[in-house]
Amino acid sequence: MNGEKVLVVGGGAGGLLVSNLLVGDGREVTLVTNNPEHYFQPANLFIAFKGESPESYKRSVESLLDPKVRLILDKLSKLDLGNRTALTERGKRLEYDYVIVAAGARMDYNSLPGMKENFEMFGDYYSSPEAAVKVWNTVSRMKNGKLIIGVPDLIIKCPPAPHKGVFLAAEFFKKEKRDVTVELLYPSPHIYTEAELAKTIESKMKSFSNIEYRTSFLIDSVDKDRKVVIGMNGEEIKYDALVLIPFHKGPEIDVNPAEARDDDGFIKVDKRKLNITSYDDAFAIGDCNNAPTSKTGVAAHLGAFVVWKRINGRNAEYSGRTNCPLITDDEAIFVISDYDHKPVGQRFSRLKRLMEDLFVAMYFPSLRYPRKFEPIFDVYFNATEPNILGEKGW
Amino acid sequence: MVEEKSDSKSTEKILALLERPEMEEAVANLAELLIAMNESGLLDLLKVLADRGVLESLMKYLMTPDFLRMADKLDKYVHVLEESGEILITEEKARTGIGGLLKAMRDPDVQVGLTKLIKLLKFLGTVKEQ
Ligand SMILES: Cc1cc2nc3c(=O)[nH]c(=O)nc-3n(C[C@H](O)[C@H](O)[C@H](O)COP(=O)(O)OP(=O)(O)OC[C@H]3O[C@@H](n4cnc5c(N)ncnc54)[C@H](O)[C@@H]3O)c2cc1C
Q1: Average pLDDT of chain B, as a whole number
Q2: From ligand 1's centre to the CA of A287, what distance in Å?
């Protein structure tokens, strides 16, 4: 088969899916990933605010891969797009006919004074399950005072995840009858980047007596000794515990040519075909690329299918579709949008929360057996396309 | 040296599970359940459901924008149906004549109810057999 040697970088959602899909065509697929475990990132919220065990949301990469995929546990350090070669940190040289980079986003704590120290003290629910356990250790011991969740930048995974954290924390404190207020510091003028959806979220927040929020709040720095977050306008807000959402950057891979990456290190792609700009044998899917849509598991999932089909000569394109759930303990909305449509109107409902639980239950098997799950997901994505849900919303 | 995967991990896991003391009872229970499910035809039904074609058809039937919207509000519909159903099945002693009707029309709730009824009638009039 022509183009049979495929190199995939990253054992996250996108990398596992695309590896399993392509190896099923009889190609020789090698997956290089630097973490032997794959964990379900949205579950960090359940670890941080419900005290759930990280173990239930982890699987070995090996168990999620078709045994025909060759797995190399190593970090990819160099990728030479012109010569179709790559080098791992431990010195293994690899050649390919196609490369798919799915190395996710790198968390950066150094772009804001005080952020690193704060991360060491309180953890967060973005970087790892272990860091989420740290959040739980604080949250579960707080008896009163204020927990702040601060968002310094809007290029983040699952844009409603800061809000999810606020709701789940507030619900925990309410159930436990603890006198703790949860405050969200948000940089945009509305409580969510899109104004209509912001109204729905805002009214839900107002129905909680222990949630506060500030919009247009640009975080400048953190003073851990005085326990204050300092805004760019000089305003100071006192906290008892602080969770900051880290800045997101492109993966740590030395890519040649350097112009293949943008200023933040994200890999530049054609937003619909997902090939790396100027290359037709190299793709980047999921959080590591610069497609102008939200960084979500759904983007990684749909991207994997687009690339699989394109490598097989089919004319698939990624529409920019997102499907981020914003959950409270027992209700949810989905942020559904694409490149051509802003998020559709939504109401919080229990059905959506139930659907989210079903998605979680299907997560690991759907990575391992993507072809089986494709028709099922397709039906859902088709029925809920933004232009189909339209003005009426959901 | 570059680490590559081994196949033995899952086998090890299964062996460790089999050695657990609870396993004997669990396996016996499972075997009984399987026999019962087989006899009742449930196993055959599950086999059909696990087939992706059937699952896909089922999803296609359920996943339409109208169905999703309706399912989203099912709890609200059930509330309205329950409340109005109670009125419908309870014997009503009071009688309302023209005078009573006129008086009732001054009640803002009745006024809203009437507006809703008119909207409903208007919609029903546009429904065509498909
Ligand atoms: C709190 C939270 C909640 C979320 N909620 C949702 C949600 O509800 N719905 C949703 O759709 N999405 C959600 N997301 C986002 C979702 O988890 C990510 O978008 C998704 O995991 C992206 O997949 P990926 O394959 O692109 O990257 P990742 O899953 O991050 O995988 C990247 C992989 O690459 C490996 N890697 C990195 N660099 C290298 C290298 N140099 N060499 C080799 N390997 C490397 C990493 O170890 C990792 O295994 C959430 C995220 C968070 C943090």
Answers
A1: 88
A2: 6
H or E element in which residue A351 lies? helix A350-368
Which residues of B fall within a CB distance of 8 Å from A389?
65
Q: Which residues of A239-254 are buried (b: 16+ CB within 10 A; e: fewer)?
A: bebbbbbbbbbbbebe
- Domain of residue A131 covers 108-247
Q: Which of A221, A247, A273 is the last residue of a domain?
A: A247
A198 and A309, same domain (yes or no): no
Chain segment A61-86, per-residue pLDDT in tens: 999 999 999 999 999 999 999 999 99
Q: Which atom of ligand 1 lies nearest, measured to the CA of A251?
A: 38
Per the CB < 8 Å rule, is A383 touching B65? yes
Number of domains present in the structure of chain A: 2
- Residue B7: pLDDT band by 50, 70, 90 thresholds? low
At B106 the pLDDT is 96
Please give the interface size between A and B, counted as residue pairs whose CB atoms are below 8 Å apart.
64
pLDDT of B5 over the 60 cut: no
Residues of chain A whose beta carbon is less than 8 angstroms from a beta carbon of chain B are 60, 62-63, 65, 67, 70-74, 88, 90, 92, 347, 349-352, 372, 375-376, 379-380, 382-384, 388-389, 392, 394
ipTM of the complex: 0.74
- A242: region left, alpha or beta (phi > 0 left; psi from -120 to 50 alpha): beta
